[in-house]
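SEQUENCE, STRUCTURE TOKENS:
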Amino acid sequence: MTEVPFVAAWRGSWEQAATLEGVRLATSAFRLLERVVPPARWAPWRDAYNWQYLERLPSQAILQKFARQLSTLTALDVLLDRGMVQEVGSMQRMLDEIAEDIMFLGLGITTGKWTLSHVAYLEHFWSEDARVAGVQRKSIRAFVNRAFPDQVDPSKADGLGRELYQVFSDFLHARSSALVSMISGPPPRYHLAGIFDEEATRSFRDQAPSYGYRCIMSAAIATRAIENGPLAAQTYAHLEEYGERYAKFVGA
């Protein structure tokens, strides 16, 4: 099989355009936040020098997570161009985690519900000591799903989050249920350098715009937590506009 049919299905498609529009809008907000957050400094580190956030502020942690979300979604676009859906699945697990982390920290600030779990999360985030325990994913998800008093059925949201997390964890940890999606034919065989069957890759393409939406959502949460002014208002407007335009596909 050739790569032509798949490239035509992703490159230049509305799914790619929507995903990259989300990246573009979120990156614009990121660059403005980068000017507001106290920057990393070139400072002594072990027996050398390295970039460090000496203040270790929540805003600096949010900015770093946001940077990784944007770079990972850009990498997802590159991998979809090559039909590397196993790696895309792994990155979707990473993107889910990062988005939850940004919401966890951002909502902790904006709702005034900063807890000992937030303190423990940042202690682990900034530490280079493997003995410092992190905050369990279920605790992060539970906080996010209950941050607002009017949220409907947070327990159901917890369950859905666990289910999606497990699905993409199978790609990350290379379990059989995920690995068999490398098979396509005829004749049926493992595609080791990318799979270019449109049907086999459809779900990955269809899900991509929702990650563009979540990138703008992270921008909205981050700007509200860090700047809470004109930039936050503008970013929320972009989120609403994007959600309306692609509501059918991003679950907004």
